[in-house]
């Protein structure tokens, strides 16, 4: 039937609102598809709504350029069946292996907005439950890379590293990149912002330089200076991955197949030839035990073989935050202090040098870890860091003191004497987020005590920083409620025979 | 933060559109929840969109009464976490058994719009893949019934029957109800409209009487006359079921647990004490084989035991349509003709009497099927039918000739001579829908030949009726393309030795 168009920017999905009477005429129900013929044709999701007058079609603005039509135009609208890829999603629900072509079609249909949130959710749930084998994951990663932009370097090899995440305070990226680039290798590193964490690498890097590089700039700077600290989101690398994350997020799932394909797709898009995977392992992270970490390492190496990337894995300690700082300016300051030559926190220095060392060894250096430490201690890494910062429109003469955390501070002290038996990453992340991290750049935590250390009653455990008093107060409340530090005496439990009178 | 309200009827879900800058301030991403404080508070799904000006919140109209606010009001908006029931959905993804309370909470959260389409889709996909045991399904059915209206009869027992559907032309409901009520038993039958079929019971019953009865009228008429042919959708029986169907529909799945719970929840809501389940079995239906049918029968009887409903099951033949007519007026006419005493199509008469007979036997009659046939042949069923029609504001003196199918007719003839080897229900349904069924009341099919019958070349196989020439033409095209009748000679394949020269 024909309806009069009215465009409204109401949805990220291509959506059409039609009056119930008209919808019945078309034979369409909520969440069905209809085909809309303007100058060109497009498919949209049907929403049956009284908001549309009889004879009217309210269309999401994203359809306007697709169908080439204006408000008031007469559009022909007919029922349309769902995309073929829904069949492949059902096939995965039935725990069948998908072909390369089926996976590619699903990815393209997500990209083109032909699959709705309902269908993407079913896809992710099916992946979560039934999984994929390495061949499928490789095809999935390839399809996600192929449906986005790619960077093609004139200079090879292209080194890369990636942390699976889940551990707060993991501020090693600028250090690793600077060391590796100082050694003459190229490491065009793209990072992400926080999804559920307190502060992603891009969230703290942007406190001292631009992070939005287009592909041409990323290529130019990397080839010239040897490295970048770019935000992956500023390029159109494997864009389907970001679309899928939006649906994953409310479900609180991250299916193994999706996670592996997501990571590898970005590496394919950037043309990585050599990759070190950091697998943080510990309670409260994505990878709770060494056994799980080893299984991931196996998967990554198998994927590397299928996709022609040399991949090595590092299983790293993640039972507590890396270093002392959590939050954008606090992490940036700690990171730059280490580049300036400060000798602690040693957990950050050690992790950065170990990972940089693995890359250096891939690049032909002997004793990578010591070599990395040498480059850091010599000041060569700091010099390289300055070059990269300057190339990304930051201040070449940057100093750690330039990074000033939020003006509001609250101390969290130990209620008893004893030893730090455990620290909850998850609770610290929640507290840092409550304090305003990562959008409030001065917000975050500074941790004074780490696992195994002796603490006296009333001694400082950590400080909460923030740009807003209200948020810092709220974070302090959470700290009191959650008690992220477990402080115990050496004597954990006393066992004695029952007393006799 | 505080934003200025603007209400638009843009979504069936409670939705809030916020400018990207404001969303970052709140710390919310697409598909996150926010809490909105008007005079009262409500949770809504966040959509980050440039459609909202900075400082503005565009809210779906369904939120207006919930938060008690008007356009221009200043609303406090903060980040909110998802409902607890998302955890239970994840538990089902992990193939764990859910408690009664967890299932109840999921159902309540769907009802209250606290679970989004994304989450409902994940729930259905998890049910499809991991299933539920009978205890969970019983709790699920109970929860769906408890979250809607219920009918409480003063008269007992309450007989009911239900067809799992999937076979076109299944117009037996008014006949069964009339026979059973004529025998003095009470059968307050609620039916549905077509979801994916060509014509639901309510779609054809509404061609000769009202189908929208509220609970009070349904009770009154049933207790007085002995039966109704009501549309379930006009009451608020197990409303969550209808909400879930909207999400199931684009996925093309109907998880066993959901289907069983859906059927039984409606029976609990209406207070059925005795139920006959019709399980149509045959190629192209939900139940392809007798083995699958038996498994369903076992499930239904187990559920009945758990929920204190006496359930008996009938596995019925469904390899081809029941009777000759498909489509609202055509089915109504065929149904009334049989009540008037016409002796064919015998498949409809036999099925109606067999099912009515099972109910009569539950009610203490001997030889139910013969008794049912007796009541039909005596005219008592027609008399009871008229009483029910009149009670539902139809014409007591209704005659089958009052139902006149669409004025546009196309014949579909056999391209060859032979025997009808098979008929595709699925294709016939698509053709009937293309002809306009069920919204065009005169649209549908009239089938002249059934399985096993001899057909000559050029002989009529079926006719397509419709209220619109364009739709009938389109349906005819589909008929030519699909060839729903498989006509073969008796000799299916000739095998001969290779010829020698």
Automatic annotation (TrEMBL), chains A, B:
Pyrimidine nucleoside phosphorylase C-terminal domain sequence ranges: 419-486
Statement: the UniProt record of this protein carries the keyword Glycosyltransferase: yes
Keywords, ordered alphabetically: Glycosyltransferase, Transferase
A biological process term (GO) from this entry: pyrimidine nucleobase metabolic process
Any one GO molecular function term: 1,4-alpha-oligoglucan phosphorylase activity
Documented EC number(s): 2.4.2.57
Cellular component terms (Gene Ontology): cytosol
Entry-linked SUPFAM superfamilies: Nucleoside phosphorylase/phosphoribosyltransferase catalytic domain, Nucleoside phosphorylase/phosphoribosyltransferase N-terminal domain, Pyrimidine nucleoside phosphorylase C-terminal domain
Keyword Metal-binding recorded: no
InterPro entries membership: AMP_phosphorylase, Glycosyl_Trfase_fam3, Glycosyl_Trfase_fam3_N_dom, Glycosyl_Trfase_fam3_N_dom_sf, Nuc_phospho_transferase, PYNP-like_C_sf, PYNP_C, Thymidine/AMP_Pase
Pfam families per the UniProt record, alphabetical: Glycos_trans_3N (PF02885), Glycos_transf_3 (PF00591), PYNP_C (PF07831)
Annotated protein name in UniProt: AMP phosphorylase
Organism: Candidatus Methanoplasma termitum
Origin organism lineage: Archaea, Methanobacteriati, Thermoplasmatota, Thermoplasmata, Methanomassiliicoccales
């Amino acid at each position: 039937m024909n309806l009069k168009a009215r465009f409204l920017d109401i949805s990220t999905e291509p959506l059409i609102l039609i009056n119930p009477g008209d919808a019945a005429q078309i034979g369409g129900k909520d969440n069905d598809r209809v085909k809309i013929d303007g100058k060109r044709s497009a498919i949209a999701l049907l929403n049956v709504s009284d908001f549309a007058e009889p004879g009217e079609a309210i269309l999401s603005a994203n359809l306007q350029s697709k169908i080439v039509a204006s408000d008031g135009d007469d559009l022909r609208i007919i029922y349309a069946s769902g995309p073929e890829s829904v069949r492949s999603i059902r096939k995965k629900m039935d725990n069948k292996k998908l072909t390369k072509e089926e996976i590619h079609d699903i990815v393209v249909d997500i990209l083109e907005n032909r699959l709705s949130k309902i269908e993407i959710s079913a896809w992710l749930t099916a992946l979560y439950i039934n999984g994929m084998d390495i061949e499928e994951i490789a095809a999935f990663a390839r399809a996600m890379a192929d449906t986005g932009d790619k960077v093609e370097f004139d200079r090879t090899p292209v080194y890369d590293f990636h942390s699976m995440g889940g551990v707060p305070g993991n501020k090693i990226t600028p250090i690793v990149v600077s060391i590796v680039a100082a050694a003459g290798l190229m490491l065009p590193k793209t990072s992400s912002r926080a999804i559920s964490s307190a502060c992603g690498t891009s969230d703290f890097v942007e406190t001292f330089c631009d992070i939005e590089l287009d592909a041409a700039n990323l290529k130019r700077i990397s080839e010239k200076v040897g490295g970048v600290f770019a935000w992956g989101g500023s390029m159109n690398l494997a864009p389907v991955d970001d679309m899928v994350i939006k649906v994953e997020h409310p479900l609180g799932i991250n299916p193994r197949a999706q996670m592996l394909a997501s990571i590898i797709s970005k590496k394919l898009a950037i043309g990585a030839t050599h990759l070190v995977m950091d697998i943080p392992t510990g309670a409260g992270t994505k990878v709770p035990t060494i056994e799980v970490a080893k299984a991931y390492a196996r998967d990554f190496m198998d994927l590397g073989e299928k996709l022609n990337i040399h991949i090595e894995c590092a299983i790293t300690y993640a039972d507590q935050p890396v270093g002392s700082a959590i939050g954008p300016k606090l992490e940036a300051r700690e990171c730059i202090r280490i580049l300036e030559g400060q000798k602690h926190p040693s957990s950050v220095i050690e992790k950065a040098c170990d990972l940089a060392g693995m890359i250096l060894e891939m690049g032909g250096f002997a004793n990578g870890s010591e070599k990395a430490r040498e480059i850091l201690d010599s000041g060569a890494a700091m010099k390289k860091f300055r070059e990269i910062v300057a190339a990304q429109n930051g201040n070449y003469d940057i100093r750690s003191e330039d990074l000033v955390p939020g003006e509001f501070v609250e101390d969290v002290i130990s209620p008893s004497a004893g030893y730090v038996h455990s620290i909850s990453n998850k609770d610290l992340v929640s507290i840092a987020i409550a304090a305003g991290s990562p959008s409030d750049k001065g917000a975050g935590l500074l941790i004074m005590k780490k696992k195994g250390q002796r603490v006296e009653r009333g001694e400082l455990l950590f400080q909460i920083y923030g740009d807003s008093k209200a948020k810092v107060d709220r974070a302090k409340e959470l700290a009191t409620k959650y008690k992220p530090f477990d402080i115990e005496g050496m004597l954990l439990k006393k066992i004695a025979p029952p007393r006799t009178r």
